[in-house]
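Incident log, entry 3
Record: Redox-sensing transcriptional repressor Rex (210 residues)
Problem: checksum mismatch between cached and fresh output.
Input:
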Amino acid sequence: MKIPQATTKRLSLYYRFLQHFANAGKERVSSKELSEAMKIDSATIRRDFSYFGALGRKGYGYDVPYLLRFFRETLDQDVETNVALVGAGNLGSAFLKYNFHKNHNTKIVVAFDNHAPIDGEIISGIPVFHPDRMEELLPNYDVEIAILTVPSRSAQEMADRLAELGIKGIMNFTPVRISVRDDVRVHTIDLSVELQTLIYFIKNDGKIEE
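Fresh output:
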């Protein structure tokens, strides 16, 4: 059965909140408790879980340790994924400082930026090189996913180069809708659009059905 995209986007959230319940000593949790904690309708939670079979029992709820193991395996939480960052400006630098491996199974291992010296430099413990060396160096880092935080004018060119280097997924933080081969998946996060959407929801609270 094909899992809806909206459901797949919530899987990491389920895993995070189940970790909170486990850390609080909870052995079982109901869809209502998850709903109240996550602010997601309980019917949506039950429907999401139903795509993966019988994860809970009627009258009992969900076994927290079991669900944690299930989602850890589903999300490959025990397998670390290397990530490349392309564009180490203001937003990119924030990613370097945070880096994901502290709380997740992803880790930025290399970055490229036009202002980096050709021989590279270390920023927040991560080697940063000039993009002229991307074809030479990126294959050394076992990377399949890249974060794109370059200026809009460079987005398509960089995406094309990443695709040619075998990158399978690009998280695009530019407002440009880049086009790549069918075997490369792109998730675009336009912060200005997200902000305008938030403003709209605030101003129209109570008028919109989610």
